[in-house]
Amino acid sequence: MLFSDGSMMRLYKQTVQDFCLYTGLELDEMEMQRLKVSAAEMSAKMRAVRIVSASSVSKKDLEQRLLQKGEDAQCAKNAVLWMEELNLLDDRKTAEGIVSRCISKGYGLSRAKQALYEKRIPKEYWQDVLADYPDQSDSIREYIASHLPAEPDQKTLKKVIDALLRKGHSYRAIRRVLDCGDVLEEE
């Protein structure tokens, strides 16, 4: 919206309708301030909707991302509360989804914990969603079988172990699979 003093304000259609704005309308200082606040809140809400629809996020993560995008701190908090009221934000469900994706990708427990941390999932949900984390021996075995030749040298073996460590598997679990000896025989 372009104002008579040459200033410009981006407004969502809902804000225009809420304030019954039209060309030639004159706003006093108080109405102009209310319009600015409303426009900022609507901006934060619409940005929150775009973020949540693009990826799963926690409440803290959403608020942080809104702040990084330049939204006002109070508007960001209000947008998070609004999304929560609409049942569009649920940290527990987000945590379950993150863990499920980690399992499907064959990641180890420590990588799943890292993913929860990166998404700012409150620690109160960690224990529940990680309680039934499956043994990843099969995943480790498959990875080793597909990346390690029948007669590996130490350098190649170290690369495979390092890759598995980056995927969040413990050295103990990797060693356990390697010590079984049936990995290299499958090829």
The tally of helices reads: 11
Largest sheet: none
Number of strands: 0
**What would you call the shape?**
elongated
How many discrete structural domains? 3
What are the low-pLDDT stretches, counting only 5+ consecutive residues below 50? Answer: none
Quickly give the structural class. Answer: mainly alpha
On the 0 to 100 scale, the average pLDDT is 89
Fraction of residues in helix: 55-70%
First-residue to last-residue Cα separation = 67 Å
Report the portion of residues in β strands: under 5%
Describe this structure in words.
The structure is a single chain. The relative contact order is 0.09. The protein has helices at residues 13-18, 29-54, 59-68, 73-85, 91-104, 109-118, 126-130, 137-147, 154-166, 171-180, 182-185. The model has no long low-confidence stretch (mean pLDDT 89). The longest helix is centred in the first third of the chain and has 26 residues, at 29-54. Helix 2 crosses helix 4. With 187 residues, it is mainly alpha-helical. Helix content is 65%, strand content 0%. It has 11 helices and no strands. It is elongated, with a radius of gyration of 25 Å. The protein folds into 3 domains: 13-85, no CATH class; 91-130; 137-185, no CATH class.
